[in-house]
Amino acid sequence: MVLCPGDGARLRELTRSSTAPAGHVQRARMVLLAAEGLPNAEIARRVGMTRQTVIAWRARYVAGGVEALADLPRSGRPPVIDEATVVVTTLNPPAAELGVTHWSARLLADHLARAGTPVSFAEVARIWRDWGLQPHRIETFKFSTDPQLEAKIRDVVGLYLDPPTNAVVVCVDEKSQIQALDRTAPLLPMRFDQAERRTHDYKRHGTTTLFAALEVATGRITADACYPRHRNGEFLTFLKQVAKAHPKVKLHVVVDNYATHNHPNVKAWLAKHPRITLHFTPTSASWMNLVEIFFGIITRQAIRRGTFASVPDLIAGIRTFIDTYNERCRPFAWTKTADQILANANRPPQDAR
Predict the structure, then answer these.
(1) Percent of the chain scored above 70 by pLDDT?
(2) How far, in Å, CA of 92 to CA of 347, rounded?
(3) CA distances from 223 to 163, 214, 215, 234, 309 (A)
(4) pLDDT band per the 50, 70, 90 thresholds, residue 353
(5) What is the biggest distance separating any 2 CA atoms in the chain, rounded to whole angstroms?
(6) Closest CA relative to residue 221, chosen from 235, 232, 210, 231
(7) What number of other Cβ atoms are within 10 A of residue 206's Cβ?
(8) What are 271-301's pLDDT values in tens digits?
(9) Rounded distance between C-alpha atoms, residue 120 and residue 109, angstroms
(10) Do residues 174 and 230 make contact, with C-beta atoms less than 8 angstroms apart?
């Protein structure tokens, strides 16, 4: 069988779809196997259908293309589905006696059937797709209770959008409890049609805390250090390293509200070095610290899938990543104004999107 131009990609996409009807996917497989030159009997064996069925769907495709593989309208009166009841029931949590925290399609279908509203779980799943309902998913939100919320937001956002002249703005934070994990067996490399594989169990070889300073104007990591702990002493030592990396300039340092950043020892040192000013993000708003973006990058690209036989091995991997990252880094572009952030922060949870 010769496929029409472009149909091969459409059929392969259909076979990989998790939402297409099972029958439609099965017919797409039949046509693709036929295009590979397989005989009808072999196609029937592979897809679990009869040879006559394979012949019929091949003919349907030849006559009408991919669209002809869909189900034809059924005769008779279509079933009446009470979508409103399905939606309303979905939006309310299950009763306590059911012992579950959220609905599944099968559980909701069984519940409605017992309540006198018969509906299949497939119809429930379809209605959920149509209405954009996803009971299996959950997201989080957090309101900042900082009494200086507006002042801190305007301060930090002002540094990003309109940095002071003849000064340097850096974002500083620590990524604690980075584990040196070693798998119990070597990784199996990626192959065609097969992802890289690793054992589910691992050996722990200790932890370290990464301190990093990101220069807002360039996106570079201008100072970094790994310490076993993250107390005020380690933070002060790192702050001195940041100051040394940016000598003889006014230095604005964005940090979060971790207690060590406000320690009396830190305040005493800052009083002796007036060219350095700390700017605090609001409580529960550490996402405003741009170095958190870098921490996400290093986690995804170097730490999470890394294998480390010791803490020094982990630290060496972190240093290697930072060196190569600085060669390709770009500054992160902050786009939201303080007014936009405050408007979003003051919305109720259901509207804060």
Answers:
(1) 97
(2) 23
(3) 20, 8, 9, 14, 25
(4) very low
(5) 89
(6) 210
(7) 14
(8) 999 999 999 999 888 888 999 999 999 999 9
(9) 6
(10) yes
